[in-house]
Fold this protein.
Amino acid sequence: MRIIGIASGKGGVGKSVTTANIGVALSSRFGKKVVVVDCNLTNPHLGLYLGGFSSWPITLNSVLKNEAELEQSMYTHSSGLKIIPASFELRHLQRVNMHRLKSRIKKTFDGYDADIVILDSSPGLTKDAMLALRCSDEVLFVATPHIPSIVDIAKCCTMLKNNDAKPVGIILNRVKKQRYELSEDEIYQFTRLPILTKIPEDENVLKSTNFKVPVVTMSPNSKASHSFFNIAAEMIGQKYIPHTSFWGKIISKFRRN
């Protein structure tokens, strides 16, 4: 089993949306047993993107207050994905101890029947964010092709140097292919990390977040969905082959000729 942290140098880059869509893609398209954990206790958005709000009586907050076991806070999404949400209520932040996270994750998932556990961390270099990343074996960063987002990733990598968590690469999100965006070479100069995939700016993603349905479910043939499926496939060493409709195949044939 792999524990993968998904992080960002700053907020607002689409980290939780990326976590939700990769998790659902791995579960629904590739049949993997995946658990996603919302480690952003201050602004927990992962549950929103997966259709939940206040329907979970036990959350990660309960676990970190020694009121429940981690497995008790696990719920099943319609895609088959398992989610451990954080509470939306401010009162549930009282007496939460993030230092318990690593021991609870190790205790719960040691021998647990899952292929991948994905930790959606808080953005930036906060104490809670670093504690979540230190529970991970690998770290994927989500960023936009803009200087503040990329510079902050470089800082995160410096903080992780003396830990077991290995930075793997960057998922470049909301790419518009504009000349003012940073190039792959420029991003590598800042971070020394490869670009794993580029998620294009896609209005379908914005629609999906308001409908609380992952874009890979709501619009599986959108440009963003193809990118999410592709990175999910690469994470497990598989090749993503898009499903093409009958008319799509006919059009492609004429284009080739």
